[in-house]
Design brief:
The protein is mostly helical and 175 residues long. It is built from 8 helices and no strands.
């Protein structure tokens, strides 16, 4: 269990609080795993749900900020994320358990999923929808799963070409 972190803390602060290196590619994979779980929960349980809003926001149009939902609705989704978490994610969620209140790891992630949909984050709107405003552009693009995928594909292709060239030159004496 680690000390709680406020929801408005930066991604970098969040990762460091969890004991993760913000510059390590494995940290990006962990972050996206946690964010994917929170995103699915948001989309399935909160998105567009006026009945879960605090009364003063009942007439507001989506998307909604985390603060627009009742405390019980938000807490319910946090508990749902924890109960349905994959074993890898649960290991990180267990670090966020507190004596009273919501799991701070899940709350932080769900808050940020809401934040990137509620229209307040101008930098996120200007780039990749899931980019994080507290990272430099180069770091944010490295953390994006689509960029990670293409980097892995390019690395695989480069290795394949090198292997094929070796076969053509050494084994078949073609080149």
């Amino acid at each position: 269990m680690t000390a709680p972190l406020i929801r408005s803390a930066t991604k970098r602060q969040f990762l460091i609080q969890l004991g993760l290196d913000p510059n390590d590619i494995r940290t990006s994979e962990t972050y996206w795993m946690l964010k994917d779980e929170a995103t699915r929960a948001y989309e399935n349980q909160l998105q567009g749900r006026r009945d879960l809003l605090r009364p003063e926001y009942a007439s507001q149009e989506p998307p909604y900020a985390a603060a627009h939902f009742t405390a019980e609705a938000f807490s319910s989704v946090v508990r749902s994320i924890y109960s349905s978490a994959c074993p890898e994610a649960r290991a990180y969620y267990n670090r966020g358990r507190v004596a009273q209140g919501d799991n701070w790891v899940i709350s932080w992630m769900l808050y940020h999923v809401c934040r990137y949909r509620d229209g307040r984050n101008i930098r996120a709107r200007s780039r990749d929808f899931h980019a994080d405003d507290d990272l430099e552009d180069s770091q944010a693009s490295q953390a994006s799963p689509s960029n990670w995928y293409w980097k892995q594909a390019a690395d695989w292709i480069a290795r394949w070409i090198e292997l094929w060239d070796n076969v053509l030159v050494n084994d078949w004496n073609i080149l």
